[in-house]
Every structure is written in structure tokens, then in C-alpha cells.
Amino acid sequence: MKDGGIRLVIVQGPTASGKSALAMQLAERLDGEIVNADSMQVYRGMDIGTAKPTPQERARVPHHLYDLVTPDVNFTAADFRDHASRVIEEIHRRKKRIILVGGTGLYIRILTRGLADSPGGNQDIREDLEARADREGLAALHRRLADVDPVSAARLHPNDRVRVVRALEVFFMTGRPLSAFQDEHRFADELYRCLKIGINMERELLYRRVEERVDKMMAEGLVAEVAGLLAAGYTADLKAMSSIGYKEICAHLAGEYSLDEAVRLIKRSTRQYAKRQMTWCRRDSEIIWVEYPVKFDSILNTVMEFYH
User: Fold this and answer.
1) Is 17 annotated for ligand binding?
2) Does domain 2-115+187-307 have CATH number 3.40.50.300?
3) Where are the domains of the chain?
4) Is 140 annotated as a binding residue?
5) CATH class in words for 123-185
6) Can you tell me the distance from the alpha carbon of 257 to that of 242, in angstroms, rounded to the nearest whole number?
7) Is 13 annotated as a binding residue?
8) Cα(306)–Cα(308) distance, rounded to whole angstroms?
9) Has 242 been labeled as part of a binding site?
10) Is 255 annotated as a binding residue?
């Protein structure tokens, strides 16, 4: 086993389920440190809309991989893997426990299983596909993907433009489905010893927590945060600025719709995102599903057994 059998506790689950609070409790009880695995919390200046840990929370427990880059940087899953592997090794050398927390399932899978060996890119093919997406719509591209790579089409949401275009790009470059490259790899290289914990929550409660979180973000000043980013020169078409919460507030500030409508759209999109996160997590048979916070003592015992 690589990396000397470094043990990771991974706290997963949908947005607003309580992952950060559970990770904090575990880190405090186990002399641990928290490593971020959320694709949006790596961006500096995007604090309220990404629900980052507060300065007070970060003072209680060491936190890593927050505020790594500015919003105009295209931070990739491979970038995350490189940063996270270095941080994890450094924490391990100091003999501290490592709590990985986040809702970006792809980041966690690539860190723990490695990257699939798939081809590079082809600019001409990608630009042609992007033009087709603009002209014909994403649904048409997804139907085309279903024709040539039904496995990838079943895995991808029809509105996931980046990954649908990438899957078609690979097929048109190589004549082989992207899923074939991935299945050959099968994410089979175990890089760490992992205990995966998922927070189980009834959908109605989760959706209520989502709406409460959005209301809290608005009260804390999400509009001002987005306005400040725009004033600093970060445009609405950046990858980071087109994420949930920022996209809708950018549109509101551009006069496309009212603030009430922006809030409604943020809540709707966040509920849909939470549902996709749950679907992703449910595919992972290694995740142990827990009730939090009511069963924290049981969760703590499970984690201590894993370490000992």
C-alpha cells in the first residue's frame, strides 16, 4: 500500500447536511486537522456563498486547502489531488489525524483512487462541440453522447456541459468511449486507508436546511460579496463565478431579475445539487451512513476503532 498506509477519515454528504460541523467535532476530539475537499472553497474572496468555515472555527482546529487561488484560476481535480497529497503527507509526519471533508465527490475519488488514464484534448474538436452546444442545446449533445457512449451518458447530468463535451471529445478523438478508458482504470489503486462517513438525512429536512442556509447567506451579505468580486474585475463568465449562488446574484446585479427571484433560483439549484450529491454518494458502497448529530458518540467510536 502506498504512502505508508496513511489513514484518512472522509466526511461526505450533500450540502447543508452538517459535514463541516461533524469534521470539526471529530478533529477536536481526535487531535486532528481538517483538509478541504470542496471545489468552491479553494477560491479566495468567495466565503459566504461557499459556506466556508469561519475564522473562529479555523482558529479552533487547523484547516487546509481553503483560499488557495483567485476566482479567475481554473482549479482542476488534478490540481486538488496534488495539493491534497502534499498536505496529507505533511500532517501525517506530524502524527496528527486527518479529516477530509467536502461535497465534491470527484475530488475525493481522484485523491483516494487516482486519475483515469484518458487522452489529452483536441482544441478543434472541443470548439466544434461547444459551438454545437450553443447552436443545438445541451440536450442534443447529451443525446449524441447516449448514442456513442451510453455508459457515460447515464453517469452525466444532461446539463453538465463540461463533462458531456469532454466525453464526446474523447470519443471523436479516439473512436473509443470515455467510459472504456475509465473502466480499464476502475479507480482501483488504493492510495490511502479510508474510513468514509456519509451523513444520512431525510430529503425534506435536507431541503429545509438548504433553504435556511441560503437565507443565512443572504443575511450575511452574499450580494455585497458578489458585487465586490465583480468590482475587483472577476467577470460573471468565470468558472468560479458561474457556480450556484454567484451566478444568480451576478444576473440580479446585471438587472436580469429581482433579488427575490435570485434567491428562489439559488434555493432551487442548491436543492438539485444536493440531490445529485446524494446520488453520487449512494453509488459508493464503502460509505458508512450515519445520523448526525444524534449519533455522534457512535460515530466517534467507529472512527477510534478505525485508528486503533
Assistant:
1) yes
2) yes
3) 2-115+187-307, 123-185
4) no
5) mainly alpha
6) 16
7) yes
8) 6
9) no
10) no
